[in-house]
Amino acid sequence: MDQKSPKNLFQLPFIPPQPDIVVIGITQFVFLTIGILLLGVALKVSNPDDVTPMAAFLVHHGVLLLMIPLIWTALSEHAYRIAPRGWRYAIRGSGIVLAAIIGLLFGICILANT
């Protein structure tokens, strides 16, 4: 009797990620990491009385903020597969805008606390 092994119902086919989405997600992650490190240095150098509330929030919750690029990448990968071709530019654009907001937010906080 020739028995076949049962199929694994939870095994999904591997679909390679979109390289542009991954690059944008890594850029967001790098901006956050560098921003958290530089803001931490700026806060240690500056006077504790002059620390802005936004800078204190960004430094204290920096590890949780690192989830933003991961969540954006996962949602964008899913949306990229099901979206029509015209919407793919909007998905990429939202990631670029998010990376720019992250960079500007940390840049403003670093300059305000030095």
Q: What overall geometry do the principal axes of the alpha carbons give? A: elongated
Number of helices: 5
Radius of gyration: 20 Å
Number of domains: 1
The pLDDT mean sits at: 86
Distance between the termini: 77 Å
Task: State the helical fraction.
Answer: over 70%
In total, the number of strands is 0
- Main sheet record: none
Structural class: mainly alpha
Beta-strand level of the residues, as a percent range?
A: under 5%
As residue ranges, the low-confidence spans are none
Topology as H/E string? Answer: HHHHH
Keywords: Membrane, Transmembrane, Transmembrane helix
Transmembrane segments: 21-43, 55-75, 96-113
Q: Can you walk me through this structure?
A:
- With 114 residues, the protein is mostly helical.
- It has one domain.
- Helix content is 73%, strand content 0%.
- It contains five helices and no strands.
- Helix 4 runs antiparallel to helix 5.
- The longest helix has 28 residues.
- The model has no long low-confidence stretch (mean pLDDT 86).
- Keywords: Membrane, Transmembrane, Transmembrane helix.
